[in-house]
Design goal:
The protein is an alpha+beta fold and about 625 residues long. It contains 18 helices and 24 strands. The strands form six sheets. Strands 3, 4, 6, 9, 12, 14, 15 and 16 form an eight-stranded mixed beta sheet that branches. A five-stranded mixed beta sheet has the order 18-19-20-22-21. The protein has a four-stranded antiparallel beta sheet with strand order 10-11-17-13, with no helix packed on it. It binds ligand BES and zinc ion (ZN). Ligand BES binds next to strand 21 and helix 3.
Length: about 625
């Protein structure tokens, strides 16, 4: 990793982003009950209508046409079912789908009903089966405002010539484009045939059977895909657009719009090494290829771990590979999340927390102990900051969260940072060798299955603690998982480089000008730590001194810019306002835009500014970000 580039324009992707739909509201409370089953047991999931103990979907075959003018996917989903003796119905999750017909394999109509619409969960689709029906065909069409899909106009892309479509299924949005049992515990294989306008490429979280597509009648191209490993439905994913490809290594490559491809290929040039490091840690990569798709700037997340094809924000393209921990994270999900999957969304720390630990280990393997320690301290810095904000005793700081509402709004980073700290503390307590052996065997034992919080703790007790009462006492497992706050045994790795940063902050706050600080050779992580240590509010003179020396307002590094912009809003540092406006209108990553709008809205002077910028930018944000901002702006 190198220094972040300091005097580059933010993102050269200043696209006034475009309009899509609606905001969503709360779901009922979760419970953690389980039904014993002969199949791998499936935890009760309060965010799905499915009753897999009666009939469950095992395979989905999609045949869909992509219509950019109508903003619809239209065609059929053929579902293979496993039906328990005596069961006569299958219940699917749907949300806003326009259903045409449900038939059996032979085309004979099957009776079906749509239940009452829940504001968040959508509608159960109940299909009555005939004795022996093991395959059903649902003909349907999506709505233009489907929550999982964002339809972009050519103007919203980098190339400006072609429209773009992408999906985002996690947590419970797959049901807005695929009628299936949308619960992380109900694994399904899938295949797909997509028909798209000629000139565009379709990619999916699956093996590409026709990488360049096959021309078909009517000016269209057909693409076929196959995902032979059973995955949770939130990992079904599609993107269609002017998408080019560049190979990175024997098993890896990058997809992006042509004008972004070269930058993306440079940024992710170390991905093969990351894969090798991950495999050395926790066992073989089981998904064949690992490709990365760089999305247009409205992509609402930093990254999404769609199997075989991570989706990534273009804001990760810093030009100097300094933000690639994001790729380490999404790659790590190939084990924690995609291989061993959270049973319900209340257990999602098992996806995100375990992955955040794994991410740190990959980063350490590639860049050394010091970088690993810095990343881990940054994560603790964030965690402690959140704890101060929400209160140390807030249930929001638990790893296991009884989900009351919308799993889509899990904006909290606690499960990431506290989860990573929990695993680091276990590692430190039992020793690396022993901990790694445990984690590796955990992935092997539960590959292609789901895991809940109780099950994970049982694993730790059975395979790591093994009845050692002193160790059990030391680890404080239940306190880590079920109680708020940070347990006393938390491990804090030391780094000399951060000790040096602390000294510079002290000097600066003691009155030294920024130009007197010793910052030569600092990595992005040191700048992030530096900004994180500064008090929330600074004087205009202090901000001007920092900006005059370090040119934060001009940085091309999205993470550094974000941290800096937060400071400038808190102290109303006006010279940064044009950069703030540009940042808010040129990308739509929720973790960046939400806190910045929030900070503006909390200030008398900032509120009208936020409203003006939002009026311009709103239609360009993804539905999931737009929904949260709509609420905030009222
Ligand atoms: N799986 C998440 C994204 C996600 C979580 C989508 C919950 C929907 C609901 C992904 O792996 C993730 O954690 N992304 C992070 C980046 C990462 C480097 C921490 C993000 O988007 O900020
Ligand atoms: Zn993640």
């Amino acid at each position: 990793m190198r220094l972040h580039a300091r005097s580059r324009l933010v993102l050269a992707l200043a696209v006034p982003l475009l309009a899509l739909a609606g905001c969503r509201t709360a779901a009922p409370e979760a419970t953690a009950s389980q039904q014993p089953q002969s199949q791998p047991r499936i935890a009760h999931d309060p965010h799905s209508f499915a009753r897999p103990e009666e009939a469950r979907v095992t395979h989905v075959a999609l045949d869909l046409g992509v219509d950019f003018a109508a903003r619809t996917l239209k065609g059929s989903a053929t579902l293979d079912l496993q039906v328990q003796p005596g069961a006569s119905e299958v219940v699917l999750d749907t949300d806003g789908l326009r259903l045409r017909s449900v038939t059996d394999e032979g085309g004979k109509a099957l009776p079906w009903t749509l239940g009452t619409a829940h504001p968040r969960l959508g509608q159960p689709l109940t299909v009555t089966l005939r004795p022996g029906t093991r395959r059903i065909v649902v003909r349907y069409e999506t709505r233009p405002e489907a929550g999982a899909l964002q339809w972009l106009t050519p103007a919203q892309t980098a190339g400006k010539q072609h429209p773009y479509l992408f999906s985002q299924g996690e947590a419970i949005l797959t049901r807005t484009w695929v009628p299936t049992q949308d619960s992380p515990g109900i694994r399904q294989t899938y295949s797909a045939r997509l028909t798209v306008p000629r000139g565009l490429r379709a990619v999916m979280s699956a093996e590409q059977l026709t990488p360049e597509g096959v021309p078909v009648d009517g000016g269209h191209t057909r693409f076929d895909f196959r995902m032979p490993q059973a995955i949770p439905p939130y990992l079904m994913a599609v993107a269609v657009g002017d998408i080019a490809f560049q190979q990175l290594g024997p098993r890896s490559g990058v997809y992006a719009e042509p004008s972004v491809l070269a930058r993306a290929a440079y940024e992710f040039g170390e991905v093969e090494q990351m894969m090798a490091a991950a495999e050395r840690l926790y066992g073989p990569y089981r998904w064949g290829r690992y490709d990365i798709l760089v999305l247009p700037p409205s992509f609402p997340y930093g990254g999404m771990e769609n199997p075989r094809l991570t989706f990534a924000t273009p804001t990760v393209l810093s030009g100097d590979r300094s933000l690639v921990s994001l790729i380490a994270h999404e790659l790590a999900h190939s084990w924690s999340g995609n291989l061993v999957t959270n049973a319900t969304w209340s257990d999602s720390w098992l996806n995100e927390g375990v992955t955040s630990y794994f991410e740190l280990r990959i980063m350490e393997a590639l860049y050394g102990r010091e970088v690993g320690a810095m990343l881990s301290r940054l994560s603790l810095q964030e965690l402690e900051r959140t704890e101060k904000e929400v209160g140390e005793q807030s249930p929001q700081t638990q790893l296991y969260v009884q989900l009351k509402g919308d799993p889509e709004e899990g904006g909290s980073r606690v499960i990431y940072e506290k989860g990573a700290a929990f695993l680091q503390t276990m590692e430190e307590t039992v020793g690396r060798e022993r901990f790694d052996a445990f984690l590796r065997s955990y992935f092997d034992r539960h590959a292609f299955q789901s895991m809940d919080t109780r099950g994970f703790l049982a694993e730790v007790r059975e395979h790591l603690v093994k009845g050692d009462a002193a160790l059990e006492q030391k680890l404080q497992l239940d306190e880590w998982v079920y109680r708020p706050g940070l347990p006393a045994n938390v491990y804090r790795p030391q780094t000399d480089r951060f000790a040096h940063v602390e000294a510079q902050v002290k000097a600066f706050l003691g009155g030294a000008p920024a130009s007197a600080l010793k910052t030569q050779g600092w990595l992005t992580q040191e700048w992030q730590y530096f900004l994180g240590l500064l008090p929330r509010e600074l004087t205009p003179a202090q901000l001007a001194s920092l900006d005059g020396t370090f040119h934060f307002t001009q940085t091309g590094n999205s993470e550094v810019l974000f941290a800096w912009l937060e400071k400038t809003i808190a102290s109303r540092y006006e010279p940064a306002l044009p950069a703030l406006e540009h940042f808010l209108t040129s990308q739509g990553r929720g973790r960046f835009v939400r806190p910045l709008y929030r900070a503006l809205m909390d200030r008398d002077w900032g509120k009208p500014l936020a409203q003006r910028i939002y009026a311009e930018a709103r239609t360009g944000y993804h539905p999931v970000v737009m929904g949260a901002l709509d609420k905030m702006m009222n």
